[in-house]
Amino acid sequence: xxxxxxxxxxxxxxxxxxxxxxxxxxxxxxxxxxxxxxxxxxxxxxxxxxxxxxxxxxxxxxxxxxxxxxxxxxxxxxxxxxxxxxxxxxxxxxxxxxxxxxxxxxxxxxxxxxxxxxxxxxxxxxxxxxxxxxxxxxxxxxxxxxxxxxxxxxxxxxxxxxxxxxxxxxxxxxxxxxxxxxxxxxxxxxxxxxxxxxxxxxxxxxxxxxxxxxxxxxxxxxxxxxxxxxxxxxxxxxxxxxxxxxxxxxxxxxxxxxxxxxxxxxxxxxxxxxxxxxxxxxxxxxxxxxxxxxxxxxxxxxxxxxxxxxxxxxxxxxxxxxxxxxxxxxxxxxxxxxxxxxxxxxxxxxxxxxxxxxxxxxxxxxxxxxxxxxxxxxxxxxxxxxxxxxxxxxxxxxxxxxxxxxxxxxxxxxxxxxxxxxxxxxxxxxxxxxxxxxxxxxxxxxxxxxxxxxxxxxxxxxxxxxxxxxxxxxxxxxxxxxxxxxxxxxxxxxxxxxxxxxxxxxxxxxxxxxxxxxxxxxxxxxxxxxxxxxxxxxxxxxxxxxxxxxxxxxxxxxxxxxxxxxxxxxxxxxxxxxxxxxxxxxxxxxxxxxxxxxxxxxxxxxxxxxxxxxxxxxxxxxxxxxxxxxxxxxxxxxxxxxxxxxxxxxxxxxxxxxxxxxxxxxxxxxxxxxxxxxxxxxxxxxxxxxxxxxxxxxxxxxxxxxxxxxxxxxxxxxxxxxxxxxxxxxxxxxxxxxxxxxxxxxxxxxxxxxxxxxxxxxxxxxxxxxxxxxxxxxxxxxxxxxxxxxxxxxxxxxxxxxxxxxxxxxxxxxxxxxxxxxxxxxxxxxxxxxxxxxxxxxxxxxxxxxxxxxxxxxxxxxxxxxxxxxxxxxxxxxxxxxxxxxxxxxxxxxxxxxxxxxxxxxxxxxxxxxxxxxxxxxxxxxxxxxxxxxxxxxxxxxxxxxxxx
Length: 949
What we know:
With 949 residues, this protein is α+β, with helices and mostly antiparallel strands. The protein is 39% helix and 18% strand. It contains 33 helices and 26 strands. The radius of gyration is 27 Å and the shape is globular. Residues 1-33 have low confidence and may be disordered.
């Protein structure tokens, strides 16, 4: 369960903005990129179509059905016409709280919904709440569809009798920990200030979806019941079924399971006006951050307004494209900001246009803000160029094509249909949006910016410093009065249907070829959308760094996609945008990768661009200096973020500094090493690792291999290895003996503590870990795992806890992550240790129910695990990394079905030893240390700041 993320980024299909963590070399004034031959936008738009059937049941439930038989799965997506904007005063956070309650069981399906959903092999299962809606979704194997529909209909029509005061109190605590988790992040309190400044008292969009601690405390059984009966009727809902189903079957099943549910009230959201500030509002706040941030925002029209698309296009030109004006001037040119973004978050009734400037340390935030306003005013005065607008169009349509490969989940076809029906009364609203993008002109963009962004703005500047006092939850919530609620009269219903036989997954056939220079090509076909994904893997990764030059590999990779010998950074970004292509570089611990997403009509020029990036990086000294400054800023930012602080500290504690894995998992290195890296180091690192004799090319495409190889041959066939020796990683250093201890990193004013613990297992990633991982599903790596069930679903101390073996090629770490409320930090570690010891040493191993759930879930979910080209590409790469056969996914079911509880217990006991765990805790030492001292484990306190250089 989650509330959708940042305000701008979560604005569904309309959000074109992509925040740019800019690290691009360029002079302040750039020439345009050489023209590329791209398919017309109209040709790409014509490729986007989601055929559907719509019908309405007698009780008012609107049902949309899309047939897609590429995989034996069906996406089930239920959207309710109610969100946080519908919450009255004093009841903020109720929509999201009720979303959590909807997973706690219904009258005819008692207990956590995660249990039957896991048992049926559901993938992409979750629920989200946002300003305008609440939705629940899962993708299930076709034989499990009837049971999924029974479950969804039961919580729609037969819910209230299953909600107890105990359930309410527990989920209240879970939601409040979710709130703490978000608030605990750098800049995590800014959303509340922004909403309260932009929208007047009483405006539906004035409060956040997560709500206030006080209002959550006040949620009572009666208010929860009132919320359900007022908003969760079938006539206030949209049900989408997308995938392996026909309209006739969909009508039969929805009539059967949803038809008997009675109508309820219909929510008619208020026509929330777009407010205009009477005068500019400027506010300064402080937070424990590494750099100043300036956010400039306006309330603007919502998604159905004619100005919404022009505003979104203007946002991309200003700060959304990689070649945006703010990037070119502030990040690449003047280098006064480390990152910039602009986006238009378009919601149902209103929107928010926001500019975000992360100021480079040492620069004046006011001066950077003033410069950004100059750039904005120039865009308003002169409008965007036709070329800029075309690039935005192509990128938007390309991303839409990519997103519609999936039938369900957080995006995909079901979401596109449901949003259109819910907000516009038209499932094909996505087409109207695409057509609006295709038709928008520079003049329309300029007019929209002139109309809405010349009004007074709200500007929030966040400076490093102490936070304001945090509003915590009450020790005794007023809603937890345990006054007996009137009994709910339950309505008899049919029995829950059984799940049919789920066939084994049919993984795509894997084909191979070699280019003339010997580079191997590993290929699989997926033809649901006209798109191609390519990943060039190099046997390097973060582990390739020398201990004296930590961060070199990732810095070299960052430089690779920031300019070639023929294209500077802006030209390279413009060329990608014109093609609707995305080229990116990155690294895991064991592999470095340069990847491409391309719409297939533009495949040939996109691969040519990819080849230029791989073979001809510029590595200019001036660009190294700029990226060095950006990298140092990122490291400083990591020292303010709870999870990043923990992941910087733990690797060396468990692996030792001599191990290639004993360095910060982010790969950013440390201040000393980054300052010392030279241009010669970068070039030598490239020559050592990024070379054809160290590469494999993985491809998933709608085109056959016979058409792919000539394109790759043209780009890479003549690429030759340099004379320098190929790199080799040395894992010979011994892993230090485990010494149980706690390292407490002091982060004052933290309402939540971040716990990261673990050990290095004797096993390697190339070993057969199927049995261990299955056992660990029961223990740590599942929503229903012992540790998550205890800390989240029983105690309510955390929003989510996990333990898993990381997918490294060599000796793997077993890592436990647990963000917990600050006043339960010590008890949480004690509870974790108790769960591990009970399972591993206390005779409380895998139960028959856990065995059945794990076997069923791990086999049935295979049907939906390789639906997309991205998932298939990931499987090809991981099979190669870990030495698995091409058909490995098809072997999993038979081996899993043969598992016994004894085998799982034995595998876990042989691998995991909690007495060897080293714990890193990031939290407020004044609150946390006394709790940790009581555990009887040695505690070392460290500062979040770096050691003196």
